[in-house]
Amino acid sequence: MKSHLSILTAIVFFTACSSDQKRVVVFSKGTAEINTETKTIKATDGAGHEDKAVDFVGKNVELTLNTASGDAKVTLTENGYYVLNVKNDTIIGSQVNYTDPQLANQVITQEALKFKIDSLENLVANKNVGKANRNFYILPNSAVHITDNFDAIIIGPFHKMRSAEGKDGKAPEVYRFYSIKEIRETIAKLQGMTGGEKTVE
């Protein structure tokens, strides 16, 4: 009887813990040192972009950050998927629809091109941003809750991924993030295409 009660208690405890799960994708420049026991993250302004996913369990998870942007604390209160930015640069992202790579090349009209430029400029200006719009503006040393879906795909800056597979017949839930510098470069390239219809690759 004791054995059965112990197993039942363990199951209940595990279920309770699982319901308070936070998955954090840490975006860093160079390698970030993550200690899950002390809930501390240390990152210097190293070379290249890195992203690392780590899970925490708890109703309110407080993380202590020591980065090139200074010391800070962030508290994770919602369950689900977060992006934590420990780069010395703002990160901008949104939910995107990935299609078959063969369908990626398409002719874009001037009207659609202007709409895309306006949308990107709004993102850079931190306008119309929020989970409701599936757009995110993440300052250094801050974390943003992205989604409740642990099967979501989060793609960090400088990755070249162009397609993603769905699961169980459903389209994938994908979020693509860029450095603010990348977004500004993209805006400049798109503005250079406003002289006529172009093929986007």
Please give the order of strands in the largest beta sheet. Answer: 4-1-7-11
β-sheet strand percentage: 35-45%
Q: Give a quick account of the main beta sheet: strands, pairing sense, barrel closure.
A: 4 strands, mixed
Between the first and last Cα atoms, what is the distance in angstroms?
65 Å
**From the helix content, strand content and strand pairing, which structural class follows?**
alpha+beta
Whole-angstrom Rg: 20 Å
* Count of runs of 4 or more consecutive helical residues: 3
Number of E-type strands: 14
Question: Which stretches are low in confidence, meaning pLDDT under 50 for 5 or more residues running?
Answer: 1-17, 196-201
Mean pLDDT: 81
Shape: globular
N-to-C series of helices and strands: HEEEEEEEEEHEEEEHE
Helix content: 10-25%
Outline of this structure?
By secondary structure, the chain is α+β, with helices and mostly antiparallel strands.
SSE blueprint:
Elements lengths: L1 H17 L2 E9 L2 E4 L4 E4 L5 E9 L3 E7 L2 E7 L3 E6 L5 E6 L9 E3 L1 H15 L10 E4 L3 E6 L5 E3 L18 E6 H12 L6 E3 L1
Parallel strand pairs: 1-7, 3-5, 12-13
Antiparallel strand pairs: 1-4, 2-3, 5-6, 7-11, 8-10, 8-13, 9-14
Helix pairs in contact: 2-3
What would you say this structure looks like, in words?
With 201 residues, the protein is of the alpha+beta class. It is 22% helix and 38% strand. It has 3 helices and 14 strands. The chain has helices spanning 2-18, 110-124, 180-191; strands at residues 21-29, 32-35, 40-43, 49-57, 61-67, 70-76, 80-85, 91-96, 106-108, 135-138, 142-147, 153-155, 174-179, 198-200. The chain has a 4-stranded mixed beta sheet with strand order 4-1-7-11, with no helix packed on it. The model is unreliable at 1-17 and 196-201 (pLDDT under 50).
